[in-house]
Amino acid sequence: MSSLSQLKELFRRADAVCFDVDSTVIKEEGIDELAKFCGVGDAVAEMTRKAMGGSLTFKAALTERLALIRPSREQVQALITEHPPRPTEGIKNLIHRLHQRNVQVFLISGGFRSIVEHVATELDIPFTNVYANRLKFYFNGEYAGFDEAQLTAESGGKGKVIGFLKEKYRFQNVVMIGDGATDMEACPPAVSFI
């Protein structure tokens, strides 16, 4: 456990801070909220419990859960409108302070870009600093899968995104903030994990 002074020094040295989104920047887990909204919350929660055993890759678990949810474009937009993600206490202030110090802030999520972009807008984070999974839809708005080429669709994807960011921007001190194993796996290449 770090002291407050150590934590402050960590943020002072950071040239970039990457945040997980679900249950970190926002209070909810996006896929669980989407599943509930689409009427399959219990089934997806059970599937998630089974996947936690580690028998499935992240991509396989995401594929299975989305195959059950099958959200339409309309349902995703309705979820965002009717049940917008709620920011965790203090997150707006923290990100504002990082922006004041010209620290780059990124949102890196195994969740869905359409939801994460809504969060980014609320926090004044440009969409170019959002890395998340893209849902795909047919012309009629029906679910067509997700973009499996996104780094965030893979196991270890958050670390790959941070590696890409370090190479692209020449960051030296990247801090990753999150609540799960996939977040902790991103350190290294992140220098620190909170």
Assess the beta-strand content as a share of residues: 15-25%
Q: How would you sum up the major sheet?
A: 5 strands, parallel
| Count of separate structural domains | 1
CATH fold name: Rossmann fold
Counted by DSSP, the helix tally is 9
What is the level 1 CATH name? Alpha Beta
| E-strand count | 7
State mean pLDDT (0 to 100 scale). 86
What coarse outline follows from CA principal-axis ratios?
globular
Helix percent band: 40-55%
Terminal Cα separation, in Å? Answer: 10 Å
Structural class: alpha/beta
SSE arrangement, N to C: HEHHHHHEHEEEHEHE
CA gyration radius, whole angstroms: 17 Å
Task: Enumerate the spans where pLDDT stays under 50 for 5 or more consecutive residues.
Answer: none
Report on the structure:
- The structure is a single chain.
- The protein is α/β, with parallel strands linked by helices.
- It has 9 helices and 7 strands, in the order H-E-H-H-H-H-H-E-H-E-E-E-H-E-H-E.
- It has one domain (4-193): HAD superfamily/HAD-like (Rossmann fold).
- The protein has helices at 4-13, 30-37, 41-51, 58-69, 73-82, 91-100, 113-122, 157-169, 181-184, and strands spanning 16-19, 104-112, 130-133, 135-137, 143-146, 174-177, 192-193.
- Helix 2 (30-37) packs antiparallel against helix 3 and helix 3 packs antiparallel against helix 4.
- The longest helix is centred in the last third of the chain and has 13 residues, at 157-169.
- It starts with a helix and ends with a strand.
- The model has no long low-confidence stretch (mean pLDDT 86).
- It is an enzyme of class 3 (hydrolase).
- Belongs to the HAD-like hydrolase superfamily. SerB family.
- GO terms for molecular function: L-phosphoserine phosphatase activity; magnesium ion binding.
